[in-house]
Amino acid sequence: MVGNIPAGSVRVFGKRYDKGFTLVELMVTVAVAGIIAAIAAPSFSKMISHNRLVSSGNEMIAGLQIARTEAISRRQATTFCPSSDGASCSNTVGSQWIVLSTVNGAPTVLRSVAANPKVSVKTSANVTGGNTRITFTPSGFVQVGAKSSGTISMCAADLTGQNAVDISAAVVRITSARREAGANCSAPGDI
Q1: What is the 3-state secondary structure (H, E, C) of the chain?
Q2: Which pLDDT belongs to residue 70?
Q3: Which long-range contacts (CB under 8 A, 24 or more apart) does 104-108 make?
Q4: Do residues 158 and 105 lie in contact, with contact meaning Cβ atoms separated by under 8 Å?
Q5: What does each of the 191 residues of the chain score in pLDDT, given as a tens digit?
Q6: Could you tell me which CATH class the domain 26-179 is placed in?
Q7: Which of 60, 71, 135, 145 is the most exposed place for a label (fewest CB within 10 A)?
Q8: What residue segments make up the domains of the chain, in order of their start?
Q9: Cα–Cα distances in Å, from 85 out to 109, 145, 171?
Q10: 161's torsion region: left (phi>0), alpha (psi -120 to 50) or beta?
């Protein structure tokens, strides 16, 4: 207490006022904050799903670009392929892909690319079965088995509208495009 005024109080024109919030004011503030959070939450979850999809697509594009760059700079074929163990190519398309090159006669993983587990990965008919490898020649051209193109699709089933990113590697270019794949995340077509 300072003089006859208790701590936390203010005297204005002879009347005493207490500083702080009442319990009612605090509860109203908490209720308003809760309502705003409830309204914003669905849009945040959609934004997070969209960012997962875009991020996974960018990882795949980066993997393909690295494979092409390494093929040109090393002057030897470099492969971008799915992998179940992170060390060798497999024939099963999954969320993990690797960039593989031969160094001193041994296959060497140059980069590992993993899509978010909540994003499904599908491939076009050219990149299925025994043809899951996308190989870049020393000149930077694409070979997918006997074909010269292939498409990898990243899809988020929990998004509506354009919920897929198709990444196409064809002859000398890598492109990506958004499309509507539906809730079942349909496989992409060949280009």
Answers
A1: CECCECCCEEEECCEEEECCCCHHHHHHHHHHHHHHHHHHHHHHHHHHHHHHHHHHHHHHHHHHHHHHHHHHHHCCCEEEEECCCCCCCCCCCCCEEEEEEEECCEEEEEEEEECCCCCEEEECHHHCCCCCCEEECCCCCEEECCECEEEEEEECCCCCCCCEEEEEEECCEEEEEEECCCCCCCCCCCC
A2: 93
A3: none
A4: no
A5: 445 555 556 666 767 666 778 899 999 999 999 999 888 877 788 888 889 989 988 999 999 999 999 999 999 999 888 888 888 888 888 778 999 998 888 889 999 988 888 888 888 888 766 678 888 999 988 887 667 788 888 888 788 788 888 888 887 778 888 888 777 777 777 66
A6: alpha beta
A7: 145
A8: 26-179
A9: 11, 22, 29
A10: left
Instruction: Tokens for 7, please give them.
Output: 């701590």
Q: What tokens were used for 47?
A: 């934004």
